[in-house]
Fold each of these.
Amino acid sequence: METLFIGKNTIFLPEIGSTNSYATDLLKNVNLSEGTVVHTANQTQGRGQRGNSWNAEPASNLTASIILKPGFLNIKKQFFLYQVAALACYDTLAELLKTSHFDIKIKWPNDLLVNRHKISGILIENNILNNAISSCIIGIGVNVNQKNFEGGIKATSLKLLTGEDFSVAAVLQLLCSYLEKYYLALKNNKYDWITEMYLSHFFGLDQWLNFDINGNIEPLLVKGMSDNGLLLLEDRSGYTREVDVQGLKWVY
Ligand code: BTN
């Protein structure tokens, strides 16, 4: 699939600590074109959300960072970048897995689950100038051909789900085209449509799930997401809380 700008300029590194860190450093010194993709076959110090690490077996997975310049986006709307990236991952997985056999969901804010197992994670790092996002690095990891996951984590890969081998380059190409589609929608102010799409894939929506909030496990009803991107959870007394990602763990 052809794209207009995402993936037109690519930087491939056989091995690097973190594509996000590499892209961050590069942006400080070089005026990279919007849509530049940094990807590697072996990410040795991958970074995840909330200071976690992201481990990926060499030559088996997608580990890439895409540079965007959403100068049009007010920082109050930065959560839309997560929605756009998650939707691009969703569509990529849906196309590769032919949806009907697999339950693909976006777990707020930015995890992609298939049959309740994590297959993809997103780490976005923004550079802010005058209340707008001058540049951002969208780091995406997708488990493609990896078969073993250490530490008893609930993870899966395209290979584990289908028994087939996938071309990591083809997964990246698809991801770039879907990211461009949703990013252009964002640029065209299609905020409501983006959120509608995001909520249509929302893990646990309208279900009672257990959450670990600062160490306390409690059942809460998943109501969706507030305008500023916080998770809406209703408790048994009918009170709706807006919850930040800090201190929150889904128990599922
Ligand atoms: C998460 O689920 O916590 C987010 C994981 C993000 C991993 C990707 S892999 C490519 C890019 N480079 C990094 O160091 N992290 C992101």
Amino acid sequence: MNMMPFPDLVRVDARDKVRGAVAFGADDARPELAHGAFAVATIGKGRLLALDVAAAEAVDGVRLVLTHENIGTVKSAGFVMGGGYGFQSHIPLLAPEIAYRGEPIALVIADTLETAIHAASLVRATYEEASFAVTLDAPGVEVIDQAQTPLAHFIPPVSVGDADAAFAAAPVKIDARFSSAPQHQNPIELLSTVAEWRDGRLVIHEGTQNAEAVRHGVATALGIASDIVDVISPFVGGGFGQKNSMQGPTVLAAEAARRIGQPVKIVVPRAQVYHVGSFRPANRHHVRLGADRSGRMVAAIHEVQAQTSRHDLFPGEYATTSSRLYGIADFRGKDELMRTDAQTPGYMRAPFEHMACFAFESCVDELAYALGIDPVELRLANDTQVDAVTGKPLSSRHVGECLRRGAAMFGWDRRRVPAASMRADDGSLLGWGVAIGTYAGLRAPAMARLTLAADGTVVVGVGIHEMGQGARTALAAVLARKLGIAPEKVAAVIGDTRAAPQHLTAGSWGTATAIPVVEAAADALLAELAALSSGGPSNKDPAQILREAGRTELTVEVGGKAPGQPDAIYDRLKAGLPSMGGPVYPDFVTYSYIAHFVEVRVEATTRRVRVPRVVSVADCGRVISPRTAASQVRGGVVWGIGAALREASEVDSRYGGFLNADLAEYALPVNADIGTIEVAFVDEPDTRFNSAGVKGLGEVSMVGVAAAIANAVHHATGKRLRDLPIRIEDVL
Ligand code: MOS
């Protein structure tokens, strides 16, 4: 196989995107569309005693008001981590019970969006209120040991050796607690759906990371056959986990469209997305890390409590990540889930890894100071090529190279070790921090269909969704190289259930899922072309061979799955159920890695924390699309800056819900907050993991950033800050 580095291909859909030529789910503006708007619950928990929709129904142009009283037989499609299809098991409007503030209680469908919004504001509810708990320490929170739930079957608690005894015996100990506020994903594209019944089929246009789950979930909820449902999602305007399974409004749009016999569009406004969609749960950590005096980490205990809802158990996988950072022989993890009165939290970029590594890598920095060892050297001294949890070999691990290269690029050797010992020219306190991150190497099954036409175009249909990460560019890059054609000749039909089964694209497994299968399909196509041109090596271009053979087109289909998966996995794939494998495979374990080096400046008077400079070096296996890969890392670093210094979904225990539910009040880093972000890749193919040698990148990009920032803030100020986000008042 050609393992030469890939060229710096420009993003193949960049031109269409900047011209607005790309159609997102809500871009449909046909006059025959009816529009939906929700009325939402204004209590923290309870039940509807009465719902008066007469005034809403009386508004000219209102076509339908859906409530629990007329919703009929629509039912839950289940929770995605419980064998179902929804981000939560709870679909609004199915019952009078109110699970949390902001839950929709009525859906108004009208001829115009303005009419729908106005009429929804006229819905009057009478409630019976119940007490509720929305913070981790509130009375009434139920604490559940994840190990005692069915989740333990696929997320077993980490337990290697005797961590408690080893920690007790360790000569050097770090013992610290960490926390993060809940956060929301905030993709620019809101949750939005156009649902249309046409010739006996239900067609759904929606930005989603999981078209197949939307298809099967809506079919389940409406009680119809999934084979009459098409879900079309060629572009997603940001997912970040929020769009990784079926959303309640999608079901309600389809039901409303069925009733009025007209296509229905619902765009959930930002403030409602904060309660209708998922979020990163509040979570807190207790880490104990023990080492010997030479700097060998000998024991660690990582205990986590994370928020879930009353109606679903959103799993925690925190210690599964921190236990993979180093070769620590004795490690114990514990995940507890805290039932609160909120919607079910969900996967938000690096859902567990970000906070697990923030907590653990902060402790590693503290250990470096306790031992008087350079933080980079301490990490290198605890590197491993064996997975400490299973004892299996790692298919590839180049985090040492990430650290060494990053240190050189950053100029780490110029760092003065004592805290608060460096100053910038403008008098700011200067701090330099480092941390590493890791993320599981996962792979889902996929089917690829490749069609070569006589005009030289190649159409690839495969299961992957383009949410900005560069899926089309990566597909074009591999097919151009394999087939010796121009990247412009490749057209990808993705995010479309009509083209190929569309497994959830998440968990940074998109490339490792689609690329090996598409490369195998290209090999199959080349083999058929060789047969057509009566064998022998050929330097003709593929279309020429096709034309000379008198054929108008040639199609091949190839499937692929994770190592060790049974053939029955393809049935799960087609059923829209999560089917990924890894990171533990029969013969090896796969993780991606990254090292981040961060400079912070803390202004001497205001104590404002700035991040002018970041160097990040990633080990994501072979880099298929250098430009979009580097963009992924920059985006991850920006997100890490947001997570460390800005983002918090504010909760008030008196009211429930989330208070700062808009982009003005939910603080995010803006362009002026971002300095230089230098990105480099080890670019070593991992061909044990898959034939293309690729590992995941999207999420590992942000893992460790927050720790590197907090470590840099400590270096600048001498303060250890363990609760995110870090605010000005914390560094006063
Ligand atoms: Mo991502 S948070 O795995 O969709």
Amino acid sequence: MAGSNNIILIGFMGVGKGSVAREVIKNSNYIAIDTDDLIESMENRRVKDIFDDEGEKYFRALEKEISSWLEKSVKNTLISTGGGFYKVKNLKKIGKIVFLDSPFEKIIKRIKSHPNSSKKLKKRPLLSDLKKAQELYDERRPEYLTLADVVIDVTDKSALECAKELLKKVK
Ligand code: S3P
């Protein structure tokens, strides 16, 4: 919502929402929060453990809870989100929506080229089967595009370049 001055970063797992958020806060007055971090502190356990112990439905209910809190209580903040958070009903009311876009193969290549790649893959239960992950990507991408106020193609760009583009486009 215009009054809240929040920016919400949406996009597929591994596209670089966290890295872009870190560069935005270094280069602006925004403070940042991350919906997965909020959920992990609420639950005092990792997202992967929440999926393993309680299942995806339970995790989605936590995302919904967080979304109400964000709408009511958070202002002037860059909010990075888990890849499925965009499904909450009040997303548009939380802030300006920025979609980080990249082809599926590039996202997987990006994760695999990371020094901590096996950790990055392990902590994301929905990436354990790449065929299913590709299907999820194909299903979600048009939905991300429909919701977005701003789209940033992050392919082959550094996090800093993306952050600068974001700050220019959300002005
Ligand atoms: C999910 C993405 C993850 C995390 C959870 C579910 C999804 O966050 O919220 O594993 O549904 O795409 P990242 O996008 O930060 O990996």
